[in-house]
Design a protein that fits this description.
By secondary structure, the chain is α/β, with parallel strands linked by helices. Helix content is 41%, strand content 25%.
């Protein structure tokens, strides 16, 4: 199989559907089905079982998919090594970042990177911080902006900035009567804080437990022995923040989102606030291209500024 055909197999396995894989690959479903039938005939084995909801891999299909992933990674590593001979004049780097945080942080970084390295293309992979760690470990991305310390990786990550998990709501929300001025010694840049026990009577809008905001929000409640009032507990970070900003509930968000919600109120969680560190991490145990190293340096320079 050539590189293009490796992508065909991986897309079918990841999408669980030939039609969805064809859409992702910008090709006709009939052409993808024809490719799969031809490969199954060549290998004399059924690779995917058709079901009412799509397809699922057989044991042979799982082996072929694992092979395709390994070969694609090897090709990606080879391409990185070859592009390094061009001394950052051409090439590409795959960057992982959460959709929510990337919205507010990434544009400035990518703008600075493009000015310095106009021939290097940055391909952005969006997912939550924990998923990005898995992608780094698997080698499907070159570099990622993640929450520190890493939960999955055993790798060094360079801290580049601090952010804060806080509550977002509207100025008219009744929780504001419990808000207090943040103390002068607080590391938080937020003007007001609230004790989480004073918020428990109000509805919360929570993100999924597979996200940092969802996991940390639930941890706050557990540590204080509180059970929140939740009707929507699996929202995306941006959707939860948008609803919170309109006063439709209390939502956990990052303070870096304040530019997108200028009319909303942001409240620290307690006097000291819930400060988190963000870091840039390269794929551990793998070849690091000059482009990935250059992007890491730009991240550090821009965000620390």
């Amino acid at each position: 199989m050539d590189i293009r055909e490796l992508d065909y197999i991986i897309a079918i396995a990841e999408e669980g559907s030939i039609s969805k894989a064809a859409e992702r690959l910008f090709m006709a479903q009939s052409s993808l089905s024809q490719f799969l039938s031809g490969l199954e005939h060549e290998l004399d084995s059924r690779l995917f079982v058709r079901t009412s909801s799509g397809v699922r891999p057989t044991e042979a299909g799982r082996l072929v998919t694992e092979y395709a992933c390994r070969e694609r990674l090897e090709y990606h590593r080879l391409r990185n090594q070859i592009q390094d001979t061009e001394n950052l004049k051409t090439g590409r780097v795959i960057l992982g970042v959460s959709t929510f945080r990337g919205t507010f942080i990434l544009p400035e970084v990518l703008s600075a990177f493009r000015k310095e390295y106009p021939g290097i293309h940055v391909i952005v992979a969006e997912d939550n911080s924990m998923a990005l760690e898995h992608m780094l470990r698997n080698g499907t991305i070159d570099i990622a902006l993640i929450t520190l310390p890493p939960k999955v990786l055993k790798a060094e990550a360079e801290a580049v900035m601090q952010d804060e998990i806080c509550i977002i709501t509207s100025p008219q929300h009744p929780v504001m009567k419990y808000a207090k001025p943040s103390p002068v010694h607080s590391r938080s840049g937020i003007a007001k804080y609230v004790d989480i026990k004073d918020t428990i009577g109000f509805e919360y809008l929570l993100c999924g437990n597979d996200t940092v905001l969802g996991r940390e929000g639930r941890r706050f409640f557990r540590e204080h022995g509180l059970i929140p009032k939740v009707y929507n507990g699996n929202l995306s970070a941006f959707f939860a923040a948008t609803l919170g900003a309109e006063g439709l509930g209390l939502a956990f968000t990052y303070y870096c989102a304040r530019s997108c919600f200028p009319e909303a109120e942001f409240l620290s969680l307690g006097e000291e606030g819930a400060i988190i560190d963000l870091g840039v991490c390269l794929a551990p145990g793998r070849y690091h291209s000059k482009a990935a190293e250059a992007l890491k340096e730009v991240f550090s320079r821009v965000l620390r500024r």
